[in-house]
Amino acid sequence: MGRERRLEGVGRRYGARGPWVLRGVGLSVPPGALIRVEGANGTGKSTLLRLLAGLDAPTEGRVTGRPRTAYVPERFPGALPFTPAGYLRHLGAVHGLSRARAARAADVWLERFGAAAHARTPMRRLSKGSSQKVAVAQALLADPELLVLDEAWTGLDAAARAELERAVAERTADGGAVVFVDHDPRRLAGAPVAVHVVRDGALHRRTGQPAPAPGPRATVEVQGPPGAALPAGVLRLAASAAETAPGRHRLSVPATRSDVVLRALLTAAPPWHVVSVRPPADPESPR
């Protein structure tokens, strides 16, 4: 229960007599959830995310659950008196990581987001895109149980946007929850996303929405240890899974998450044997 964040009858306004931005909001974010928040500009999406992240306190109602939480704001304060490497090492220590582990994690995430070349550059001299890479890296540094992303893809180049999608897949595969706002309706297309809409100060669950375009999918054949069930993280990421023989499964996996699925299979205890991987068909190739 401690890892599930819950908003119960939550309202928020700024100032004792200010208008209500949100009121009567209820939302459960269990482990492994992937939730998209939509709404017009100024409806309170960022306020909702700040409440979920624990950065703002509700004016009424309550927020329960204590997952280890990380947050990427819409605007990251890039002019900090650090280099990216120093900033990430400092935050790693705040999260309880040893100095050595924090340094390793900082190097890994800066490399993954293509910012390793700027690791020793003062943050005030970084471009907006490079600052955003640091913002995303700091959120992923300590494997958060709840990741809150407010337009986190904005300003990233194509490679970094794809890397952030992979990181989201990794978090949910490991049982973490992710709540995000993004202006691109195709973001995380094909993933099992629950959609909630902020409208008129309230939160509405969208039901019956058209399924997103599935995108290209890889086919993965795996053989498991005797009597083993597919890892839960793999089931969360695969579009479909079918047992074709005792212990043998065929998975249909969105191409953007195939490497995450393979990693989860190979690092399971005991590990699964990957029999074959068939990449998505090339739409340009003749049939």
Instruction: Give the CA-CA distance, first to last residue.
Output: 51 Å
How many β-strand runs?
Answer: 13
* Element pattern in H and E: EEEHEEHHHEHEEEEHEEHE
- List segments where confidence is low: pLDDT < 50 over at least 5 consecutive residues: 283-287
The overall average pLDDT, rounded, is 89
Shape: globular
Strand content: 25-35%
Task: Provide the gyration radius in Å.
Answer: 20 Å
The profile of the biggest β sheet is: 6 strands, mixed
Order of strands in the sheet with the most strands? 5-6-7-3-8-9
Number of helices: 7
Helix content: 25-40%
Query: SS-based structural class?
Result: alpha/beta
Pfam families: ABC_tran (PF00005)
Protein name: Putative ABC-transporter ATP-binding protein
Organism: Streptomyces glaucescens
InterPro entries: AAA+_ATPase, ABC_transporter-like_ATP-bd, ABC_Transporter_VariousFunc, P-loop_NTPase
Quick recap:
This protein is of the alpha/beta class. The protein has helices at residues 45-53, 84-94, 99-112, 128-140, 158-173, 232-237, 258-266; strands at 5-13, 20-29, 34-38, 60-64, 69-72, 146-150, 177-181, 194-199, 202-205, 217-223, 240-245, 248-254, 273-278.
